[in-house]
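Supplementary Note 3. Input sequence used for the single-chain structure prediction.
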Amino acid sequence: MSFVRSSGVLLHPTSFPGRYGIGDLGDAAFRFIDFLHGAGQSLWQVLPLGPTGYGDSPYQCFSAFAGNPLLIDPEQLIGMGLLSWDELNRELPPFAQELIDYGQVITWKIPLLKRTYERFRAGASTDLELEFKIFCAEQADWLEDYALFMALKDAHGGAAWNTWALDIRTRQPEALARWRRELAETVAVQKYLQWLFFRQWTNLKGYANQRGVQIVGDIPIFVAPDSADAWANPDLFYMDDQGQLTVVAGVPPDYFSATGQLWGNPLYRWDVMAATGYAWWIARFRAMLTLVDIIRVDHFRAFYNYWEIPAGEPTAIHGRWVLGPGPGLFEAVQAALGDVAIVAEDLGYFEPEAKAGMDSIMRRFDLPGMKVLQFAFLTDTNDQFLPHAYETPNLVIYPGTHDNDTTVGWWENSSTPSERVYALHYVGKSEGSDIAWDMIRLAWASIARLAIVTAQDLLSLGSWARMNLPGRPGGNWQWRYLPGALDPRLQQRLLELTIIFGRQPQPAKEKDAAAGAAAE
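The predicted structure, written as discrete structure tokens, is reproduced below.
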């Protein structure tokens, strides 16, 4: 798909400000879209929106299809008659403003949301009741398994599904029927929470699109081991007849880690998926397109080849490269869904064969890759991340992403003296007092069609505001900005850059007028 020259901001909804301990889909989300619109931005990039588990990572979700109930705005439930202000405020903890305490939020918010189901069941309007039933019917393909999975996790004290009794772990029909009867009420609550999430997100997305903002969302290539996806589709993953993984995902030893990275995700049986016409992946892309407008596929290289590690290995050292599905998957997606807007996360250092294989898939489907400016000053003037070296505009450029330090943090703590000298020469400055905006300007001026900056870099924040440090088991995904931080001065500054470098898409009427003038 061909993208127009444009720009935007990377900000996960958990980072919105507000009273309730975590960003949600309420008023702050709508005001953020207003900020983007006023700043001439047409892209809002989010991280995966699914329900998070251990470690709070949006890249390790309980489902590839479900939404995160923690993002539900409780104030909208008051307008629906499902909650009162007194109930909302009665036991509201003194939440921190800038960092999320997930344990505290979960302990308060999930029981509150579940209690509103009682009121919904007892006295919901006919319209709301019908809306809920329609949602459950339309989403049944994934919702039935997900709701039962989450109810079962509750019944097992949160334990991972591969530790459950063998009959339900391996989805024996009698066990499934018995648990569905016993947990019918809990299953209904889980469906209700999903309905609330999708109801609110659909409303927010509609508002964004009306304001000329498209949403860029993430598909992590792998699903979490403790997920409804793995439990409900054992034939699609490498598992034994006891429901245990036989091989898992990771990356091999490299310059950054002598033992590689052992991710532990289930690996797909691509031959089985191909035999089904990649039906599961088509369903996944279709579901994503109800949530976002553009899909960023994480760890894209695994579609060419991926690192397979025997389950039980303590590190990623003893693995092997295995070929992925190649272009076949994207041919199937394209045939089923048309010209899907996809961005390929193609970052990393690859051996020539893998680089060529990945690039061939991207060229075949005209998929843009990614460039990150924090990587640009490591080597020499031919570095692939330097804007003057870009060979195509079919790219997305970032000063840094959610996996990087903030640009100020990189400058102060991670960059070397030689990198800093080179970067200053490159941007034509004698000192780096405004380094975050120097890098924003460099990104906006580049030939890359899409340019995206993190909200932390817009605000010139240091390392304390970093969203994620890969490999760190805790302390990630916590940052929130304060009310009023995205102020009119900042908005105007971003708008000016966007106009100067031609990243503000023309309104339709102006395009028509320009086309008419050219014809004359």
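The radius of gyration is 23 Å. Residues 508-520 have pLDDT under 50 and may be disordered.
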